[in-house]
Specification:
The complex is a heterodimer of chains A (547) and B (469).
Chain A (H helix, E strand, L loop, with lengths): L4 H17 L8 E10 L5 E10 L2 E6 L9 E4 L4 E4 L1 E6 L17 H6 L20 H9 L2 E6 L6 E4 L1 E4 L16 E3 L12 H27 L11 H10 L5 E5 L2 H14 L3 E5 L7 H4 L3 E5 L11 H7 L6 H13 L1 H7 L3 E5 L5 H13 L4 H8 L1 H6 L17 E5 L8 E7 L2 E4 L21 E9 L2 E12 L2 E8 L2 E11 L2 E10 L2 E12 L2 E7 L5 E8 L2
Helix pairs in contact in A: 4-5
Chain B lengths: L3 H14 L29 E10 L5 E10 L2 E6 L9 E4 L4 E4 L1 E6 L28 H8 L2 E6 L12 E4 L17 E5 L2 H4 L17 H33 L16 H10 L4 E6 L2 H14 L3 E6 L7 H6 L3 E4 L17 H7 L4 E3 L10 H10 L5 H6 L3 H6 L17 E4 L10 E6 L2 E5 L6 H10 L12
Parallel strand pairs in B: 1-4, 1-5, 6-7, 9-10, 10-11, 11-12, 12-13
Antiparallel strand pairs in B: 1-2, 2-3, 5-14, 7-8, 14-15, 15-16
Helix pairs in contact in B: 1-12, 4-5, 4-6
Classes of the chains: A alpha+beta (547), B alpha/beta (469).
Chain lengths: 547, 469
Amino acid sequence: MRLTPAVRALSLAAAFLAPTASPLRAQSDTWALTNARIQTVTKGVIDKGTILIRKGLIEAVGPAVTIPADARVMDLAGKTVSPSLIDLTSALGLAAPTTGGGGGGPGAATQQAQSGPRGLEPERDVARELKVPPADVKPIRDAGIGVVLVAPSRGLFRGMSALVPLRDSVAEADVIKPQVAMHIGYQGVSGDYPGTLLGVIAYQRQALYDAQRQGALLDRYRTAPRGIARPEHDPGIDALVPVVRGQKPAFIEASNENEIRRSVRLAKEFNLKATVVGATEGFLALDALAGRQAVVSVNYPQPTATTGWSYRLSQRRGLNDSAAATGEVQKRLEGNAAALNTAGVKFALASGGTRPSDFLGNVRKAIAAGLPAGVALEALTIRPAEFAGVDQILGSIEAGKIANLVVSNGDLLADSAKISAVFVDGIRYAVAPPPARPAGGGNAVVAAQVAGIWTMTLTSPQGPLEITMTLTQSGSTFSGSMASQMGTMEITGGEISGRIATWTTILQVGGQSITINYRGEVDNNRMTGSAELGNFGSGTFTAEKKP
Amino acid sequence: MKRLGFLALPLVTGVLAAQTPAAPAPAARDTSRQPVLSTPIPAAGTLVAVTNATIITATHGTIEKGTVLIRNGKIAAVGKDIAVPAGAQIIDGTGKYVMPGIIDAHSHSSGEAINEGSRSVTAQARMEDVLREDAIGLYRSLAGGVTTLNILHGSANTIGGQNATVKIRWGLPVDSLLFAGAPPGIKFALGENVRQTNIGNIPGRTPRYPRTRMGVEELLRESFTRAKEYQAEWKAYEDAKTLRRKGAKNADAEPIPPKRDLQLDALVEILEGKRLVHAHSYRSDEILMLLKVAKDFGFRIASLQHVLEGYKVADEIAAANTGASTFADNWAYKLEAFDAIPFNAALMAERGVKVSINSDSDERARRLYQEAAKAMKYGGASEEEAIRMITLNAAWQLGVDKLTGSIDIGKDADLAIFSGHPFAPASRVEMTLIDGRVFFDRNKAPTLEYLIELMKRRPRANTTSEGAQ
C-alpha cells in the first residue's frame, strides 16, 4: 500500500514522538542497543557491541549482531551497559507493620485488637498483597536497580518474599518469582508471646521442630494414609516444612556480630539453607560466616552503634583521640564487604534500607575500602540472582535472559558514573540527572518539624501506655519530655534525619533503669515507629500532634 | 600499656567505689600510641606458676609462701615446696593473696534480654541464646576477681528460662563465655515478682495468671503434672518402638512420635535430675511450699536464691540438700524482704546449708569478697566458710564443684590474686586468671590517677544494670 505524503509524515512523527511520550511496549518491544561497552558480568566485557532486546528478553548480545528491521536502534557510543542491579532487601509496597491496638497479656481483647501482620506469619505470601505506587518505584530504579526482593522488615517469621521487577506499575502477575525465601528475624510481637529475644528464639526453635515433625507426618500420610490420623493442617507450620527440609531458603536478618552468630547457630541446628541478611558486622564474625552466604547491607551503622567490647570502649568520649577511633570504626564498617570477600564468604550486596540516592555511593565506599569493583558488580547482579534462585533468567547480559539493563557513562560503579536509562523487562525508563544541589552545597533534605505536644500510645510486652510528649526543636535536633503514669522522662539525643526522628529516654522502675530507644517516622502531624526497651523487648507506637 | 585508653572507663566506677588507697606509683605510661581497636586477648600459657604467695585454698586451709602450678589450664600442684619447671610463665605472688576465682551464683550481667514476661512458664527460653560478651559489667566483675557467673533468667515468671553458667573470658567471642562442663539449670521464682504484686493493674491489660501465692503453687503443680504426662507419652512411644523392633506379634504399626515440646523437655529434665533448679524466693512459707512441691514430684531444688528468710527454715533447706544463695545485708527493698537479717548466711551455714553470697547486680559483683566478709562479722562464720560462700559453695550450687571453686589439684586454674587478704578493706584484685589465662591484670589496666583525670574531663557514664531482686 502506498501512503500519501501527508499520512507518511504523520506516522513518522508518531514514531518519533512515541518513545518520549510513553515508554510502552505497545510501540515496539524490540530494541537494538548499539556501539555500547557491554559489561556482561558472566562473559566478560564487550568493548563495542550490540544488545538486541525483544519481548522483554535479551535476544542476542555480541560485537556483531544483525539488527532486524523492526528494532528501534539506540546508539550508545561512549556508554556502558550493565545488568540492572538486584536488591534483596526491600519492603517496597508493603504496608507498615501494624501496631496493634491492644497489647498486654494473651487476652481475647488483644487478639481482637490485633489486625494485620505481626511479624509472626510464616505463611504470608508477599506476592499476593503487592501494591506498588509508581512514585515509590522511580527513585529506586533511578539508582540502577531493576529488581527487588520484597519482604516484611520486622518480626520473627515474617513470611515469604517476592521478586519484583521495578516497572511503573507492578501487579501480582508481574512478579518474577513468588515465595522466594522464608524471612526470619529477631523482633517479638507486641504485648504477647514471644515478646523478647529470649522468647523469639525459643519460639523459632519450637516452630522449626514442629515443622520437622509435620513434614514427617505428611510424608507418611501421603504414602500410607490408611489407619493413621491425618496430620492437622496449620498454615504457619506447613509453610515452614520446606524450610526445615532445606528446600526453601531461609533469609535470616542479622546485622550485628551476635545476631550473626545466633542466626548461624539456628541454621546449623536445623540444617537450614540459610542466608544471613544484613551482616553489617560480618567482619567481626568471619569464623561463623565461613562457608555460608550473606546478603550484605551497605547501610553502614553509625560507629557509635557498633557492638563488641573493644568497639564500645574505643567510642567513649573523653578517651584520647576519639575522632580517630570513630574514623577507624567507620573504615572497618565500610570495609566489611572487602573483609568478607577476602575470607571467601559468598555474598550479595544490598541496600539494607539505604536511601536510593545514597545506594551506589555507599557501594563505592565499599570499593574504596578494598572490595574489587568486579566482585561488587557480581554481588549486585549475578550473586543476588543466584541467591533468589533466578540466575538462569537474571543477573547478567546473556542471550535468553530478561532484558534488565542499566545504561551509564563509564563503569556503573566508577565514582563519576551517571545513569541515563534503566531497562526493566525490556521497557526503557529514562533517568534524568539528579537535580543540581542548591548553591552553597547545603543539605537538600529538610528536617521534619516535630515541635509541639504529642499524644502517644506505646504498645509493648508490658501492655499499652499513654504518653504525652512535649518537644522543642532546633534544626535537626530536638529535646523535651515524655509524661505517663510511669512518671516524666526527659528526652535525650533527639535527632531528625529527613522524616525519621530518633531519641532516647531512661525509665526508672523499681531500682532498674531501662533505656528506651525510639525511632519514628514523621508524617506531618502523625508519627509511627518502634521503641526498643532493652531487656524488656520492643514495642511500637503511634502518636498525633495536638493542633 | 597499649590498651590503656580502652579499659579506662569501665574501671572508673569500679576502682573509685572500692575505696582503695592510691595505687603505688606506676611506671610512666605512654597513652599516645594506643592502637585503635586493639584486642588485647591474653595468650594461653601451657605452664604458669604463681609463686611465693599466700594461698587460700577454700578446702584445705591457707598456705603461706606457697606456689600454684598450672599446666594446660588446670591446677597441677599447690603447696609450699613446689618445683617450678623451666620455661614456666612466673607470676610473682610475693606479698599477695591467691584465692579461688569468685563465683557469682546470681547474675544478669550478660543478656540481651532478661525476662520473657509474656507467660508465667517459659522453660523453653534459654539465656544461652541471648548472651552478650561486651556487657561492661562482665569486665567490672572480672576486675573484682569473679571468674564464673550464673547468668539467670529474670524472676517475673513462676518457671522462667534456662540459665547459662559462664566464665568471663573477656575479649573473646560470645560463644567462648559458656562454661563447658556445667550442667544445665533453670530459674524458678516465687512471691511478689511472679504474682506481680508491685506492678498493679494496667488499664486495658488482662492480668497475667497467677495473681496469688496459691496460684503460684497451683501453676507449679500443673506444669509438672503436664511434664509427667509428656514423659509418659514419650515412654509409651519408646516402648512401642522397642516392641516393634523385637518383632512382637501384637506390635502396632510404626508408632508416631509425640510432638516434641521444648518447654516440657526442660521440665522433664528437672524431674529426671538432669537440670538444676535455682529458685528466687523470700518468705519462709513459700520456701517450704516449694520444697514440698519438689518432694512431691521427686526432684531437688539446687539453690534457693535471695532466700532472705532462710534462717527461719534452715533445717528444712539442709534436709532437702538444697543450697542457699543470699545477699550479705541487702534488705527491705520490698515487703517480702523486710524480715531479712545480716546473720542469715552464717545462721544457715551453721545448720549445714551450703550457703553462697551472690550479687544480682553489676555493682555488687565487683566486690563480692567484701560481701562475704560480712558473714564473719555477722554470725561469726569462719574465714574458710566465708571464702567458700563466694567460691566452692556457689560452685556446688551450680554443679561445677568438681571443676572449680577451690585451689585443688586437677581443677580449672580459676584464680583471683589480691594485693592483701581478700577480706581486708584496702585489698584489691591485682590479677584474675581463668583456665590459667590472665584475663585481668591491674598492672596493664589504667591507673587510678589517670581515671580521676578522665573523670574530671567528662561526665560520668551510667551503665549499671541490676536484676529485679
